[in-house]
Specification:
Elements lengths: L2 H13 L6 H11 L2 H4 L4 E3 L4 E5 L2 E4 L9 E5 L12 E4 L4 E5 L3 E4 L3 E11 L3 E3 L4 E11 L4 E2 L4 E3 L6 E3 L4 E3 L5 E3 L4 E2 L4 E3 L9 E2 L4 E2 L12 E4 L2 E5 L8 H12 L23
Amino acid sequence: MNIISRICGSLEARLNQPRLSLWRTLYFNFRTLPFATAIKFPVFVYGKVRLFMLNGTVCFENTSIKRGMVKIGINGDSFSLFDHSGFISLASSDSKLIFEGPARIALNAKIRVIKGELRLGKFVRIGSDARVICNGGNIDIGAFTGITFGCTVMNSSFHYTYDENKHCYRNRTSPIYIGAYNWIGNQTTILGRCKTKDYTIIGTGSLLNNDYTKDSGTYPMLVGRPAKTVATGIKRVFSPNAEKEITKLFACNSEPTVYAPEIEDHPENLIIEM
């Protein structure tokens, strides 16, 4: 790649990145955080993310506070255009959004906490056009988990139902616990009662509404509607250095798989442009 291509590529990347919105950043921090935390500006808001009904609170737990550690509205995956439909809503005074470290919420993502608690572990990434809706109860998303574009995570059906056979009402809300280091394929839907193990890979377009921690085996892959464990022992590669070495292997081999010893891979060394 020549120098002109590199310069043009860098310019194109900048043109497709929403600008930091100073007033939205000011408003969000001082509206939702204690003054001593807000003055450090841990949250940066980009573009035209809509902020409304910010009646709840934002908390930082188990982490040191750093400027711009949470980025909302950033073009992190380049799978969405600037339609400015993304929003953050903390509808009631008992709604809470908790960050346990740096996080990235892409442009056009919708985060809605009507009441209850949405907890994001360190280095969680939520892709463009994703929806995370917490209507009471809890949604916990483990550290280093990536929710890709177009996914829905929703812990409530918003309506009660009555079982005439058992003569009982069913709760409309159930908790969601997504393990650490999960990789969630695009267009996946995750509903109440879902629990996943650490290091779970979820196939594109899957539907999760069950407790998958009861399944045997480690490094599971879940696929289907509803999802089932179709394989175990399948690890996502996290380290950029490991990815470079694997790319070299495939450069010399056009087969869909390359048999080779496992390359050392430390997820904690994952470099994320936060």
